[in-house]
């Protein structure tokens, strides 16, 4: 051990000597500055830089008068090169000064440890020499027991007893130290076990903390999702409120229009009832004229002698034609009025059914059923079943005749078995008759209905294949024109 320490100390001393060896001589004109670490090294570097600058200026001032342009440039390049070399040397000096300071510190420590080891070595050598001398003395004493007197034996006995007691005390002390070290070792084992348990507890705590952090993160995510869902619910609620307000307004408008349609239907019914007596009178008059015509057909026909005798039959035929035309016009207008009333009743039924369907949908939406727009937007409930299109719903029964107008036969005002000249005269009389002068004889109601379009000119009602969700205002806008009735 001592030999190894001595070898290590020698190696460190050699390294320190190599580190402390003098550096290469500085360039021309430089003074050797003392090397040191820290602030002294910085001062030395500044001194070296000042000396280098001063030497450069002196050399430049010395050579300036005798130098040309090329030599001056060459000298400046040489000075720059030397300045770079000086900087590099100064950096090397600074690094070596730091290394020398570190080696000096290590050398001081090694010298202290070397002195301590030398002292221990000297003490061990002295103890070994004493032991060797004591062993030699004991060996000599054991062999020369004949020349030892009793006093020397007693003294040796006392020395042996003292040595025995000393050794006994040392043994007891060592036993106590052993017990103490055993107790300390047991305590260390316990502490090590407790440390292991504490590490395990810390690991479990870290796992628990990670799990709690995950739960907190999931809770935050769930809260954020709940806030987003509540925001969507609030937005859906606001939309539903706006839809409810709009539907209430539409329902109010539809109710007003329905009331107006009902009033128009009542007026049409009243007009029909008022026209029925006149129609009956016209029918009776028509039957009377037909009876007269049949009676005239039964009489033998007399050929006219003069034109004066033809004026009365022509006037009578003209009156018959005019009455027949008025009768047919009345029938057409009555059929058109009846068809219009039936169409109005069908439109009213469609509007009532559509309004009832919308009210049912709104009730389902308010109750949170399948028709809720919020549920459809959030995708939490299945979509509502498709509504039955308007084209597939049953319509009110049509007229028993099966057509949109009456299939009343057109009456021929002229007899079929009349001769050709008489038919020509009757046609000429009808064409030349002043029917416009006789028109005021009609009732004012028939005059007003005469200005209305016939059943062929009435615009057909709009298609019923409209979506049920369209507002009633659109359907009412496309309804056929309503015949205005005269005030009674």
UniProtKB/TrEMBL annotation:
Q: Which residue stretches, if any, does this entry annotate as coiled coil?
A: 195-229
List, alphabetically, the GO terms of the cellular component aspect: peroxisome
Going by the UniProt record, its keywords in alphabetical order are: Coiled coil
Amino acid composition bias (Polar residues), ranges on this chain: 404-422, 444-455
Q: Does the keyword Zinc-finger apply?
A: no
Q: Where is this region: Disordered?
A: 1-38, 287-319, 387-488
Where is this chain compositionally biased, Basic and acidic residues type? 294-312
Which residues lie in Low complexity bias regions?
A: 1-22, 471-488
Q: What is this protein called?
A: Uncharacterized protein
* Biological source species: Prymnesium parvum
Lineage of origin:
Eukaryota, Haptista, Haptophyta, Prymnesiophyceae, Prymnesiales
């Amino acid at each position: 051990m001592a030999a190894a320490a001595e070898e290590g100390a020698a190696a460190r001393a050699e390294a320190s000597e190599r580190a402390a060896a003098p550096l290469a001589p500085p360039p021309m004109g430089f003074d050797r500055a003392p090397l040191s670490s820290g602030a002294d090294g910085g001062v030395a570097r500044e001194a070296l830089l000042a000396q280098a600058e001063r030497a450069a200026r002196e050399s430049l001032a010395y050579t300036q008068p005798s130098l040309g342009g090329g030599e001056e440039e060459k000298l400046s390049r040489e000075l720059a090169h030397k300045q770079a070399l000086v900087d590099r040397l100064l950096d090397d000096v600074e690094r070596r000064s730091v290394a020398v300071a570190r080696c000096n510190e290590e050398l001081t420590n090694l010298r202290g440890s070397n002195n301590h080891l030398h002292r221990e070595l000297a003490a061990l050598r002295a103890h070994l020499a004493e032991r060797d001398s004591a062993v030699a003395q004991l060996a000599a004493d054991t062999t020369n027991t004949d020349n030892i007197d009793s006093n020397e034996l007693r003294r040796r006995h006392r020395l042996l007893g003292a040595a025995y007691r000393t050794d006994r005390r040392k043994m007891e002390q060592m036993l106590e130290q052993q017990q103490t070290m055993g107790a300390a070792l047991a305590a260390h084992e316990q502490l090590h076990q407790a440390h292991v348990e504490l590490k395990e507890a810390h690991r479990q705590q870290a796992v628990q903390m990670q799990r709690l952090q995950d739960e907190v993160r999931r809770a935050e995510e769930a809260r954020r999702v709940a806030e987003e869902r509540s925001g969507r619910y609030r937005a859906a609620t606001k939309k539903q409120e706006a839809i409810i307000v709009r539907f209430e307004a539409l329902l109010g408008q539809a109710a007003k229009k329905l009331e107006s349609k009902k009033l128009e239907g009542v007026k049409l019914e009243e007009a029909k009832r008022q026209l029925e007596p006149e129609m009956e009178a016209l029918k009776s008059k028509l039957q009377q004229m037909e009876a007269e015509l049949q009676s005239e057909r039964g009489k033998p026909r007399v050929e006219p002698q003069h034109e004066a005798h033809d004026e009365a039959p022509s006037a009578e035929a003209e009156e018959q034609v005019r009455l027949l035309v008025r009768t047919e016009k009345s029938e057409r207008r009555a059929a058109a009025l009846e068809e219009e009333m039936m169409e109005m009743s069908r439109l009213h039924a469609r509007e009532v059914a559509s309004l009832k369907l919308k009210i049912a949908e709104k009730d389902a939406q308010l109750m949170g059923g399948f028709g809720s727009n919020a549920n459809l937007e959030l995708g939490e409930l299945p979509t509502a079943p498709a509504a039955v299109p308007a084209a597939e719903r049953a319509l009110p029964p049509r007229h028993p005749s099966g057509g949109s107008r009456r299939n009343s036969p057109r009456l021929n005002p002229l007899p079929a078995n009349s001769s050709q000249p008489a038919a020509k005269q009757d046609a000429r009389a009808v064409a030349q008759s002043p029917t416009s002068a006789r028109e005021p004889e009609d009732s004012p109601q028939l005059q007003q209905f005469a200005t209305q379009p016939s059943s062929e000119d009435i615009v057909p009602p709009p298609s019923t294949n409209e979506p049920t969700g369209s507002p009633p205002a659109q359907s009412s806008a496309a309804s056929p024109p309503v015949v205005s009735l005269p005030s009674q």
